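Handout, section 4.2: multi-component inputs.
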Amino acid sequence: MGEFDLIARYFTRPGRTEGGVVTHGIGDDCAVLTPTPGWQWLVSADMLVEGRHFLSTVAPRRLGHKALAVNLSDLAACGATPRAFFLSLAMPSANEDFLAGFSAGLFELADAHGIVLAGGDTTAGPLNINITVMGEAPPGTALLRSGARAGEDVWVSGTLGDARLALEVFRGSLSLPGEAFEAVRLAMELPQPRVALGQALRGIATAAIDVSDGLAGDLGHLLKRSNVGAELHLADLPRSSVLGAMPEAVQQLCLLTGGDDYELVFTAPADARARVLDAGRSTGTPVYRIGRIEEAAGLRVRDGHGRLLDQTLQSFDHFQS
Amino acid sequence: MGEFDLIARYFTRPGRTEGGVVTHGIGDDCAVLTPTPGWQWLVSADMLVEGRHFLSTVAPRRLGHKALAVNLSDLAACGATPRAFFLSLAMPSANEDFLAGFSAGLFELADAHGIVLAGGDTTAGPLNINITVMGEAPPGTALLRSGARAGEDVWVSGTLGDARLALEVFRGSLSLPGEAFEAVRLAMELPQPRVALGQALRGIATAAIDVSDGLAGDLGHLLKRSNVGAELHLADLPRSSVLGAMPEAVQQLCLLTGGDDYELVFTAPADARARVLDAGRSTGTPVYRIGRIEEAAGLRVRDGHGRLLDQTLQSFDHFQS
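Output:
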């Protein structure tokens, strides 16, 4: 099957790119997008490589989901309304089983969030998936990393650490009973980007970031850009019952440096607590208050006895791990 | 060197992402872009893989140029004004020589066309470069592939075939004297996207496409989308003196199926000839009239004796070559 047949069969959905912001999509040199008058565009790109961002054992359908999910998570972190995405895909060969599954998972999630595949590229090469997502927000409402101020609350959505726990089981360093493993494997392979929550937090949260490389590292980026620090209590970090049953050291590793969580960590003034909880409720997303922003730079995490953890909290770095 | 140091050293240029359409760039989950009021966005993505889109022998500086050039060429084909681009880069290791050269070539071309690197991704993996470009145009003025009508002229910019000629020398199937080889190698490694011409053709050209996979194939896409055909004369196709000195069969191959030309092929009504020539002159771009649009589907090319070429004119397909 040639490149153009492949695009036609798996990635073209006639009529679906008409209307809305996309007036011309796949089939021209560029997609033509009409902005919502007065709004700003929020754009992000994430590249996924086999063995680094996903295991070769992952089902193509789940991979299609995850490739878009990690990108939607960046839109969520900025409070963007998803509009269009561009997929570039390098594959060793045009494997139809792979393509059927991959595109099904991709479009399922795209439809759930009302985002349209507007263009991209396909080529032969080592498996590599790049997606560029575009969303919109009213001017000045995008959530950035730089707005946190001392005295504000630190919040996180959902639960942390399950994806890392699943990865450790895949690596053979831990083991779990079958049912527990399937539960954490879902967190790793089918992350649910917090797109609705991000939009609901526009005008409420002062800063936000998604947890892709681990809470400590990602919150660290937010603190640095905001020129502040934070104190968290380990006991307040939300975790699944599976992770909560693991030894304390494993919980700590997975909660703080896990990565692949795709939850939102964000800050908001103390007097906005009711509005934050409302945003969580109205979007069906659990939200938890996990700490406080402080003037002193750096991230301080206290254990159950109130003692500061002295470990160096590193986030995942693609060129050092 | 870690991922974040690498981005800071080679891909962050403080202050350059402020102002213009980009209000926040590298360092947040998304870039924030403010559209020109009332204009549309034109977006395209191209992925480059070693051994397929470039040879391992190419200098990193030229590769940085080419990776952006092929994307700017898509904006040119749509008549877009370049605004912002997103770079995703997978590399086996963080090689500083490579990064210094690559980023220098990339930014040199970006500055020449006033386009800003607004975000992206870096990761470890087999060498893979994906760029998503975003440009703008007043509503309804984007050049598409679908607007050609019978009776219109077919035009092309610059010269065709040199990049393919260089590739054949690299492959060892042809040889050229040193100076001639360097000239065609420039065409292959440092293509100049016709961005200014594309913008000048807004409101004049009725359809356009850039020649990336070969004139026959790319013009074929335009004809198909416009539901028309065309007749060209081989003798009218513009070529360099180096290609013009090669055997007739080589010229034909390189001109019609060469690929990697990044010239624009476009259509315009016969009464717009003076305006097309003006657009070429005002942007310093040679433009040549090479044929005519006809109602009958398909592409017909006549040789110097007026005979129709009977070869099947195939364009480059990444999964069949």
